[in-house]
Amino acid sequence: QVHLVESGGGLVQAGGSLRLSCAASTSILSAKGMGWYRQAPGKQRELVAVITSGGITNYADSVKGRFTISRDDAKSAVYLQMSSLKPEDTAVYYCHLEYIVESYWGQGTQVTVSS
Fold first, then answer.
1. Using CA atoms, how far apart are residues 11 and 114, in angstroms rounded to an integer?
2. Which helix (H) or strand (E) holds 82?
3. Can you tell me whether residue 87 is helix, strand or coil?
4. 23, 43, 52: which is closest to 90 by C-alpha?
5. What pLDDT digit, counting tens, does each position of 56-84 carry?
6. 30 has pLDDT over 90
7. Alpha-carbon torsion angle 64, 75, 18, 63, nearest 10
8. Residue 59 contacts residue 86 (beta carbons within 8 Å)
9. Average pLDDT over the chain, rounded to an integer
């Protein structure tokens, strides 16, 4: 069983920054990609950012220019640097690891942005 452990969430004022980390319990070298999703209260889980094994990134329009996803294969980790945070970024952020036939979710980390 693969485990993903997120960290770095918390409470921040609007305009501030946070860096989320996700560590996998297995190698991510063969993974198709890793990503971050978020779910706000009463809303569906949505894609925030993904990064493929080749380093190609994709972002939700709402976070482009403010968030940056990166990965460290040696550490089996993926990161989400979040800047210029807005109250609407408040959500539980989930790490996602995708292989060809399987995918895994982390337990989530709360990000709260106060106005």
1. 7
2. strand 77-82
3. helix
4. 43
5. 999 999 999 999 999 999 999 999 999 99
6. no
7. 10
8. no
9. 96
